[in-house]
Amino acid sequence: MQNREQHRTVAALNSVKNVTDEYENFFRIFKEKTNELAQLEQNIRQNCEKKSVAHFFDVRDSLVRGHNASVEIASKKGFFTRPPKGIEKISEGYEMAINRFDKALSMMDIDPVETNQMPFNSETMKAVETREMHGVENGIVIETISGGFIRGKEVLRHAKVVVSHAPEAISHTHDEPLPALDAPSSTQKETGKNE
């Protein structure tokens, strides 16, 4: 009789253990599916944001071009020419609009790529042109054609930039005569400097 009771108890314990194992398995699957669903929801949201906001990147580029043009116009002062009245306020307006635009982008964790006067970075920039620049290191961005944007480490749009390269050194072969010391060289004529 005692063996029967022990057998029933062991069978009941095994049954409870099986139910518990099934519950744990069900809970594990439920947790995995819930996490997958949350990740899917986040991916859909980010892709929708990315597609929606990408259309506004050109608007920011236009604001930046307008700001740069207004600053350039404001800086052109001469004896006979004066900048248009109120151009400083226009520049401030462009700057405020750009700052508000950047705040709106930062709410979606999107940041503009810093480009001007920065070393060229092939991960976030595309060089559309190189220019020979005196006094500027090789590989420095000297002009931004269109801005780039990143979210975390993901590049949403590469910045299109103009990159500097150093002037090529003048090389002389043994057949060519060296320039006279008292005559200005061709580079001195171009820059208007005598050393």
Automatic annotation (TrEMBL):
GO MF annotation terms: adenyl-nucleotide exchange factor activity; protein homodimerization activity; protein-folding chaperone binding
Positions of the UniProt region annotated as Disordered: 168-195
Organism: Desulfamplus magnetovallimortis
Signal peptide: none
Alphabetized Pfam families for the sequence: GrpE
Name of this protein: Protein GrpE
UniProt KW keywords: Chaperone, Coiled coil
One GO term (biological process): protein folding
Residue ranges the record marks as coiled coil: 23-50
InterPro entries per record: GrpE, GrpE_head
Top-rank taxon: Bacteria
